[in-house]
Design brief:
It is a single chain. The protein has 79 residues and is mainly α. Helix content is 81%, strand content 0%. It is elongated and about 70 Å long.
Amino acid sequence: MPPLPPKPSALRWLVAGMLFLATVLNYVDKNTLSLLAPTIQGELGLSDQAYANIQNAFQGPIRTGISSPPACISRRSRF
């Protein structure tokens, strides 16, 4: 009979919970910014294009950050 794999630690669930919380906060943040776009544009005097450029400047690194870890994990995975 092969030996049983080790029991998953509580740390795994802590990390999963933190990732879930970060994802929820990210979506809430995106929705809040989209709802407040007219107010932000009015107070700062931004055109639609200028506001879109600011949004894209922040979303680019977020997209890269979201897509990079899975690629690294799949390359280094032992499973």
